[in-house]
Design goal:
Elements: H1 3-23, H2 27-30, H3 40-67, H4 71-89, H5 95-122, H6 127-148, H7 157-172, H8 189-195, H9 200-229, H10 234-241, H11 243-288, H12 290-299, H13 301-322, H14 328-357, E1 359-360, E2 367-368, H15 370-373, H16 375-391
Helix pairs in contact: 1-5, 1-6, 1-7, 3-5, 3-14, 4-5, 4-7, 5-14, 6-11, 6-13, 8-14, 9-10, 9-14, 9-16, 11-12, 11-13, 11-16, 13-14
Length: about 400
């Protein structure tokens, strides 16, 4: 792939993740007691709007993009509606209307996360070598969104995201034409993707991806309120969290090297252990408090970049290289079902419920025992790593269905 095309896809990723990064890191501060004041269950439901729509995305986005529509046109139409819904969120303060608009936005936006991956992979000649450069564009977009709020009040988070979505919708129409794939075996692409869970290696990866996405959701649901409790000004929270994305740039740029030299399993294991290290620092910081530990916690966001790239980006590349071409969008969405859907869905109730259970006191004086809370994702991370190391061994002798390419190490 020539450099001009790579840059075009990097810009696509920049805009795609600018949309999400504008509102997601600060959502739980915005819906919390200092702004909209939704209770913990309402907060869990709003966090789950994105997750619920991820559960439907494989049947909506995966099927349409794999079978019926050119992928660039699918992106444009979906982001136009998603952007309009997000602009509506800027003006709404009541729970039910807020929840409905979040559902609408998520229904149309979530599939685009898989389709942007698929449209890039469809035009790549060497995914392991080239995808890191393209995906860095998304990382920079997420960072750019965070830096908006050094100057803007967080009440503008949905205005920034909505405008970015409308710009992205127009930009998609300039992307290379990527027609839907066709299949002679099944017209229903999601069914073919689900069938691949018969492959033991893919089933193990599916389970570990769920567990790691559960941990990942804890980071975004609890970090903002946790930082505020430690005394970090609200306008700096999103910027502090963006240190993870800055580290992600370097990680993405070198991901191909690590994959070729360490292999799938070791790279993914390093990614999960990064989550363990971060929540270990969070737990210690919650226990000791003070300026030193606040700095340590903020700097631990650097680990987030390695944790995300080494596990989640590697999963996307693995899926592209080991799933049949005509179901790859559905296959990407199958794993996004966990990363954006089931993991955050379970996580929203788990982490919000734990916050409520570990809350001490009432009103402005209330505190949460984050030291205990963060031991839970730490433990899940250790279990995930053990499963990955013990059972995830992609190799040529794995029994696979006839239509699945042979897995390689």
């Amino acid at each position: 792939m020539n450099s001009a095309i790579r840059i075009r896809f990097a810009v696509m990723m920049f805009l795609e993740y600018l949309i999400w990064g504008a509102w997601y890191p600060l959502l739980n501060n915005y819906i919390g007691p200092d702004h909209l004041n939704f209770d913990w269950f309402q907060g869990a439901m709003i966090n789950n709007a994105f997750a619920i729509m991820s559960l439907t995305a494989i049947f909506f986005g995966g099927q349409l993009a794999d079978r019926y529509f050119s992928q660039e046109k699918f992106l444009a139409g979906s982001l136009l509606i998603a952007g309009a819904a997000m602009l509506g969120l800027h003006f709404v303060t009541g729970f039910w209307m807020f929840f409905v608009l979040m559902l609408v936005h998520s229904f149309f936006y979530v599939p685009t996360l898989s389709v942007t991956n698929s449209i890039a992979f469809a035009n790549l000649t060497d995914a392991q070598k080239e995808f890191g450069f393209i995906r860095v564009g998304g990382t920079i977009g997420w960072i750019a969104a965070a830096w908006f709020f050094l100057k803007l009040d967080i009440t503008n988070l949905f205005a920034v995201g909505g405008i970015a979505a409308l710009v992205m919708a127009a930009y998609c129409l300039t992307l290379p034409h990527t027609p839907p794939a066709r299949s002679e075996t099944s017209a229903f692409a999601p069914l073919e993707a689900f069938k691949l869970l018969r492959v033991p290696t893919i089933l193990v990866l599916f389970i570990v991806t769920f567990l790691d996405s559960l941990i990942h959701s804890c980071y975004f649901i609890t970090s903002g309120p946790f930082y505020a409790k430690l005394g970090l000004p609200e306008r700096l929270i999103s910027t502090a969290m963006s240190l993870g994305q800055i580290a992600e740039i370097a990680t993405m740029a070198t991901l191909g090297y690590f994959l070729k030299n360490l292999g799938w399993r070791k790279v993914m294991a390093i990614g999960v252990l990064g989550q363990v290290l971060r929540f270990g620092i969070y737990s210690l910081g919650g226990h000791f408090g003070g300026p030193f530990w606040l700095w340590m916690i903020v700097l631990s966001n650097i680990v987030h970049g390695f944790a995300y790239a080494f596990f989640f980006a590697t999963v996307y590349i693995f899926v592209d290289e080991n799933f049949p071409k005509d179901v790859r969008t559905s296959a990407q969405t199958l794993f996004n079902l966990l990363i954006l859907g089931l993991g955050p869905f379970v996580g929203s109730f788990l982490w919000k419920g734990l916050e409520a259970a570990l809350k001490r006191g009432e009103g402005a004086a209330a505190t949460v025992d984050y030291t205990m809370l963060f031991l839970v994702p730490l433990g899940i991370g250790l279990v995930s790593t053990a499963i990955l190391v013990a059972f995830f061994h992609p190799r040529a002798k794995d029994p696979v269905p006839e239509e699945v390419p042979v897995l390689v190490n």
